[in-house]
C-alpha cells in the first residue's frame, strides 16, 4: 500500500535490520572483484591528483571538490548495486562517476569545459551526468538533489520495477530542509532508496558537532522518518560493499528506504581553494593511516593476489590511462559560442532554435 | 458546443492526458481524497487510484523535487500547488532544478513536468498568500510560463503543457475557476507562443492575460459604450515564450499600448513588454506604453484596500483614455 | 557554551525530563486560576462562534480557521508562561491571541478589515499581532514562523534574558523543511524554546498517518535534534498548564529546547470552507465527549466552585462582551485608501512617504 | 586617504557598527572560524566572539528566519549568504517574512536586518550557482536593494544598511572583493536612493551598478579613446529605492540611455528603467533605451561560453555605438 501504517510497530524496529546486518557479514566477494575495486580506487585517486594539477594550471575553473580519501565509499557501494539501479550524488562527484563506469576522457573534457565533456562543458566538475549509466548527477545546491532521488524512487515504485536508488550526500546536507522533506516522503511512501551520508566530519570548515544538534547521524532518521540507520566504516571498501549489498536487498524486498551513515574522511581541502585552518596535519595523518587503498591492498596481499610488482603494474597502467584521457581532453575543442542556446529546451522556440 | 466551467476544462485536460499516457500522474496537497482544495481534481482519485492521484504532505520542496526526479526518467508529473504562493518554499527546485538539470547535463535529461495552481491576489488572503508569480517565473530561462483566460484556452493549453517535454509553469486563478465557456468535445491542443486577439479594435492595444484579460474586456466594453473607443484586447496566453510579433502587429495598427497585470509593477511583465515595444517599434508608438499593475505594495487584507491595490475595470479604462490622449 | 557537546550523553536521555514530568504532576493551581481558565475557554469559543456567523454574513473575508475544540491548549499553556515570555503561532491564532490577553474588539475589527484592527486591517484572521503582549503573530505560511521562533530564542540567549519562547504549530507543519532547520538550530544552540505541536490529527483533510512517516510525533525530535519530546492531553486544560509550566522551567534552567506533542481536535472544518468529507460525524462526536470546557467544568463542580447558575452567569457575561466587541468593530471605519502605502517601510521613501 | 580593498571596506563597516551597537551580530556559513568563505569577515570572530560572529549550519532558511525573528525584538542581524544563489532555498523567508511581517502586523514590528553576500556569474560556477538576484528582490515591495561598485560606496552603504530599520538586500560581487579604492578614516554613511555619476559625459547615459559599473567605465574609456565618444556612467547604487530623477536628468542631457546588468534580461532591471524612462521622458529620448544583460540562458560552465553570455566591455561599447547611431 501507499502509506505507512499508523499504529503498526515501526518497520525500523523490526527484524529486517538485524537480519540485514547479519547477512552483510556473510557476503564474500571474490578476490577478482576486490582486485577490480582496488584498481578503481587507484584510478579515482590518480584522476583526482591529475585534476588538482590541472586546476593549478587553470585548465579547470569554478569549484573543484576532490574525492581523495573517500574512494572506498563510491567504489564499495557502487560495486553492490546494478547497472539498472539509479545513482545520484552531490557536487563531489568525480569518484562516483568513475566507479559508475564513466570513461575518464569525457570527465576531463567536462572539467576543461570542452564540447566533448560528459555535459558538453555546460556543467563542469560539480555536474557530471551519464544517462546511459543511470547516473543522475552531480548536483551543486546542497541537498537539493535528495528530493530528486525521491522522485527516482517514486518512479520505480510507480512502474513496479526491480530497481533501487542510491543517493549520496554529505553530513552538512542533513541540516537542509529538503533533506527532511525528502526523507519523510521516502518513509511515508516506502520507496526503495538507500540514503547514504558520506560523513567526512566536515561541511566545508565546519565540524559536524558545530552543525548538527545530534552528531551520531545514524540516529537522525529512525524515529524521525521510520527509516532505519546503520553505520559503516567508509575507509573499508569491503565493509561498504557488504552493507550496501544487503541494504539494496532490504530495499528490493519492499521494506522501504534505509539510511547508511558512512564514516569517511577527505584528505584534501573542501575545494581547491581551502586553507584548511580548521584541522591539524595530525588529524589528517591519523585518518591516512587507515587509507582505503592501503587497507584493501593489505587484504589482497594477505590473500596472495597482490605484491609490490602487481601494485606497480596497476599504478603504471592507470597512470597511462589518466594521462591519455587528460591529454585528449586538453586537446579537444571548446563548444561553439552558439552552443550557449542549446540544451535548454527540448521543444525550443526562438532564440533557442538553432 | 458544450459550455463548461474553467475548472472542469482543466479536469478534462488532466483526465484525457492521464488516460492517454500512463506516465502522467498528479501530485499535490489535498488533490486526491479531498478532490482538490478548489475541486479542480474532482473525481480523479476515484478514476485513477492513489498511485496516480497522490496526496502529498505539506512539503512543497519535497514533492516538487519528487516530480522533477520522476521526470528525469520519463514520467510526466503534474504538480499542483494549492497556490503558487506556496511554490516559494520550493523556489530553488522551481528555478534551479526544473529549468537547469537539462542544461547542466548537456541535454541528457528532459524534464517534462507541469507545475500548476492558483496565482493572483485571491480573496483577501493578505500579503504572503496573494502572490502573482508571473514575473518571478517568466524571468527564468529554461521554464515555460502559461496562463489561460478562458475554459477553451485552459483545456487546450494544459494538454499542450502535459505533452511538452520542458518544465511548464501553468498559472490559474481562483476567481476564474467558475467562469463558463464553450469547449469542444473533440480533441484539440493550443500551441505555446501564439497570442489570441480576444477583442478586435483599432484605437488602443491592451495586452492582458489570465484574470486581467477579463478586466480588460470589461474595460473595453465600457469605453465602447461610454465613448465609442474601440479597444483591441490581446491575450498572449503564454508569457514564455511571449508572442511579441502579434503584440507589435497590433500596436502598429493602433499606435498605443496598455498592459494589465495583477502582480507587482517593478520588473514586471508590463515592464518587459514595454521594453521590447520601445526597442522594436519605437516609431510606431504615438505615446509611451502604459503599465497597469497592482500598486507597489504588499497585498492588504482589508477589502476596500485590496480593491484599491488590484487594478479594476475603472482604473484600466482611465489608463487607456489617458494613453490615447482621450479628452472628455 | 554555544554548541551542543559532541560525545556527551545527549541531554534528552538524561534526568531532566523525568524530573520534569514528575514535577508536572505536583503542580496545583488554585480554583481561582482554574475559574479564570474556564472563563477564557468559554470566551474563546463564543468568539469563534460569533466569527463563524460573521463569516457567513460576509463580514470576514479570506480564510478563517476556527479554534473550537482546541481551547484548552492555548489557555492552559499560556497560563503557564509569563507576560515577558515570547509567543508565536500559525494562522489558527484567535484562541492564542485571546488567551494571551488581547481585547476582542481589535480582533473582531481585524477580522472585519477595519482600521482599528490589531493589524490595521492589513493582516486579517491569520495575522493577529500584539507587540505590547509579546505576541508575535499569526503566520500563514505553514511552518515559516518556526525559524522566527528560533530567532526570538536566539535574542533571549544573546541578551542573557530570563525568557522562554512558546512556539505553536500544527501536525502538518512538521513535514516542512523549515521545521527541520529550525529545530536543528534550536537543538544546536540550546535555545530556550518550547516547540508545541497542536496535533489535531489533520492537516486540512489529510490525516497525520497519510502525511508523516512517523505518527507518534513526540519521537521525531529526540534522536533527530536532541530535543526531548513529551505528550500531553490537549483536551485537559490542567494537564496543559502543568506540562507547559514545567517545560518552561526546563528551558529557563538552560537545558535548551523541549518539544510537546499535544493531542487535540478541531470540531469545525479546517477553515470555514471545508465540507469535511474526510471524517465522520461519529469521530467528531467522540472527541466532543472529552470537550475541554466540559472537563474543566466537572473539575470545578467537584471542587464546589461552579454550578449551573454560575455557568449561566459566566456565559451571559462573556456573551455580552463578545456582542459588544463585535458590534463596535462592525461599526468601525475601514482604513483610508491611502493606508495601502503605510506599514511597509520604517524609513519610507516615495511613494511610501505620506 | 587610505586605499583599501572593497572586502576590507565591508569588514570595516561591519566592525564599526558592531562596536557602536551591541544588537548587531553576524551569522552565516563559515563566517567565524573560517574567517568567511571570501574572507570578508576576517578577524571578526577574534574581535567579537562566537555569540556575535556565528557559524551556521547549511540551513539558509533556518538562519535567515533566525535573523528575521531576532530583528522582531530589536536586534540588528547581518545575515551572510555564501552566495545569494543559496538564498533561493530561503526564498519564502526573504520575500514573505522579511518584507511583510511589518505590514501584516500593521506596523507593530520593524525588521532591521541586512542580508549580504555575493550575487553574479562568478567564476564558472554553472547554472545554479551563478544567480544575479537584482531583479528577483527589487521586484518585491518591503525590501530595499543595495549594490555598491567601489570600496567607498561599499562601506558607506553597508553602514547605512545596518542602521536602516528595514530589511536590506546587500549585493556584493566576488570579482570585486579585491578592488582597491580610497576610503576615509572618518565616519561616513551614504543615503539610499541617491545615484552617483561615476563618469561625466554628454553623448550617452549608461546606467550600471555593482560589477557592471566597472564594465561600463571601461567601455566608456575605450569609446573615448577610439572615437572620442563621451559617455556618462550613472551608478544608482540602490535599486530599491531607485533614483529615477537622476537617471532622467542625465538622459535629458544626453538623449540616449543604455543599461548594463549581468542578470537574465527578461523582467530585469533594465526593462524597469526602460519602462520608466519611456513613461517619464518619452520625448527626450532620441532612440529607444538599450538593455544590455546576460544572454537569456542558464549560465554555462565553459569559460568561452560564460564570457559570451555575460556582457563584457566590447559588447557594451558596441551597444552604446548602436544606440547613439554612431557610424564608423
Ligand atoms: C544551499 C547551499 N548552501 C551552501 C552551499 C555552499 N557549500 C557547498 S559544499 C558545502 C559544504 C557541504 O558539506 P557536506 O554536505 O558535508 O559535503 P562535503 O563537502 O563534506 O562532501 C557548502 C556549505 C551550497 N552549495 N548550497
Ligand atoms: C507552505 C504552505 N503550504 C500549504 C499551505 C496551505 N495550508 C494552510 S493550513 C494547511 C494545513 C496545516 O495543517 P496543520 O499544520 O496540522 O495545522 P492545523 O490547520 O491542523 O491547525 C495547509 C496545507 C500553506 N499555508 N503554506
Ligand atoms: Mg562533509
Ligand atoms: Mg493539524
Low-confidence stretches of chain A: 4-14
Q: What structural category arises from helix and sheet content of chain B?
A: alpha/beta
Quote the beta fraction of chain A.
5-15%
Question: What separation lies between the terminal Cα atoms of chain B?
Answer: 42 Å
What can be said about the biggest beta sheet of chain B?
A: 7 strands, mixed
* Terminal CA distance of chain A: 48 Å
Give the overall silhouette of chain B: globular
Overall 3D shape of chain A: globular
User: How many individual β-strands of chain B?
Assistant: 14
In the residues of chain B, how many domains can be counted?
2
Q: How is this structure best described in words?
A:
- The complex is a heterotetramer, with two copies of chain A (354 residues) and two copies of chain B (328 residues).
- Chain A is of the alpha/beta class and 354 residues long.
- Helix content of chain A is 42%, strand content 9%.
- Chain A has a single domain (15-327), classed as Thiamin diphosphate (ThDP)-binding fold, Pyr/PP domains (Rossmann fold, 3-Layer(aba) Sandwich), CATH 3.40.50.970.
- Chain A has a five-stranded parallel beta sheet with strand order 1-2-3-7-6, sandwiched between helices. Chain A has a two-stranded antiparallel ribbon with strand order 4-5.
- In chain A, strand 4 and strand 5 (206-207) form a beta hairpin.
- In chain A, helix 2 runs antiparallel to helix 11.
- Chain A starts with 14 loop residues before the first helix and ends in a 23-residue tail after the last helix.
- Chain B is α/β, with parallel strands linked by helices.
- The mean pLDDT of chain B is 98.
